[in-house]
Amino acid sequence: MKNYWDQGISFEEYVRIGKERLENPSSQQETEYRQYYELGLQRMDRTLKKYTPDQEQLKELASKNFDGKILIISEAWCGDASATVPALVTFFKGHNDVRIFLRDSDKSLINQYLTNGTESIPKVLILDKDLNVKNSWGPRPKYGYELLMKHKADPETYPKDNFYNDLQLYYAKNRGKDAVQEILELL
């Protein structure tokens, strides 16, 4: 895990790389994902402007005496990540070190934390002070997962476009609060 932590980058570097891939794609995937990079960067910017850490959640964090680190497996093009990663980074800032590991640069880490057999992101690894994995979370809060299950159960009456729209509305209104709470419960 130390190698993955050492390869992790800051949130600022994560955003810089996302912008670079948007403006100068260097692979076929980056070219195909340009619209997702653009959306992801816009959503991250909105989250950064709107998100304020909840004081009760900060008190809960303090009461946990968590002295570990947070490693987030992510990519800037991901819709779920664009809603949660900026909130998590902001929440833990000044309390616990947070780094981001780019999923597409090395699949060996995400392949240890698959979600129902998929490389879904973001995946948050809660590490103790010695970099052992204490717990993991992701790729979306429980409510987002419920929306996904509603779509999968009956895609004809709840099509993918409706699911994506409802999920982004939820993220815009919730502003990371549920994701932070679910992660606090795992500390």
UniProtKB/TrEMBL annotation:
User: Which Gene3D superfamilies did the record assign?
Assistant: Glutaredoxin
Q: Name one Pfam family in it.
A: Thioredoxin_9
Judging by the UniProt lineage, the source's domain of life is: Bacteria
Protein known as: Thioredoxin
Instruction: Record the organism.
Output: Chryseobacterium lathyri
Biological classification of the source: Bacteria, Pseudomonadati, Bacteroidota, Flavobacteriia, Flavobacteriales
